[in-house]
Every structure is written in C-alpha cells, then in structure tokens.
C-alpha cells in the first residue's frame, strides 16, 4: 500500500470518527433539550432568578447552532475524504 493511499485511508477514518462524534453531540443535545423546561416568555427585570437561569440555560444549550455547523463540516470532510480515496482508484 502506497503512502498516499495510507494517508487517504487515515483521512477517511478520521472523517468517520469526526462524523460519529458530531452526531452523538447532536443526539445528546436533542434528548437533553426535550427534557429541559422551555421558557414560555422572555425574562424581564421583574422575573425571578430561577426563570432567568432557565432562559439562559435554554438559550446557551438548545438554541446554539454550532453543533449543527460542526455536523455539516463533518459531512463535508467525509465526502471530501471519500472523493480523494475514490479518485486514486
């Protein structure tokens, strides 16, 4: 096996691991957010500290788009690794 093909295969393995980890992150977040108490209204200055804490937790944890962007990047990296491996054959 040539060193180029070994590098491309290693890149494919890393891409698969990256994709699985990002999918796990999304599944954990979705399952946690379905169990988290969703705030009904935005907190105001008259809201209790508990209501504000629930809103901050929900906003930081459930409305964060970063895990979905990471998943899209993982898919792109996997597609790129597959195309590179396929182009040599």
Overall SS class: mainly alpha
- β-sheet strand percentage: under 5%
Mean pLDDT: 84
Largest sheet: none
**Radius of gyration, Cα only, in angstroms?**
20 Å
User: In terms of per-residue confidence, which ranges show pLDDT below 50 for 5 or more consecutive residues?
Assistant: none
Helix content: over 70%
Principal-axes shape call:
rod-shaped
SS elements, strand count: 0
Order of helices and strands: HHH
Q: In DSSP terms, counting alpha (H) and pi (I) runs of 4 or more, how many helices?
A: 3
Explain what the structure shows.
4% of the residues are buried. It is built from three helices and no strands. Helix 1 runs antiparallel to helix 3. The protein has one domain (3-88). It has helices at 3-35, 49-62, 66-88. The chain is mainly alpha-helical and 89 residues long. The protein is rod-shaped and about 65 Å long.
What characteristics describe this protein?
rod-shaped, 0% strand, 89 residues, mainly alpha, single chain
């Amino acid at each position: 096996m040539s060193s180029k093909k070994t590098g491309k295969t290693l890149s494919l393995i890393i891409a698969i691991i990256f994709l699985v980890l990002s999918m796990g992150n999304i599944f954990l977040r979705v399952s946690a957010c379905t169990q988290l108490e969703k705030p009904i209204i935005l907190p105001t200055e008259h809201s209790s500290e508990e209501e504000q804490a629930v809103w901050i937790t929900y906003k930081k944890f459930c409305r964060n788009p970063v895990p979905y962007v990471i998943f899209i990047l993982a898919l792109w990296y996997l597609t790129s690794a597959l195309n590179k491996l396929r182009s040599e054959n």
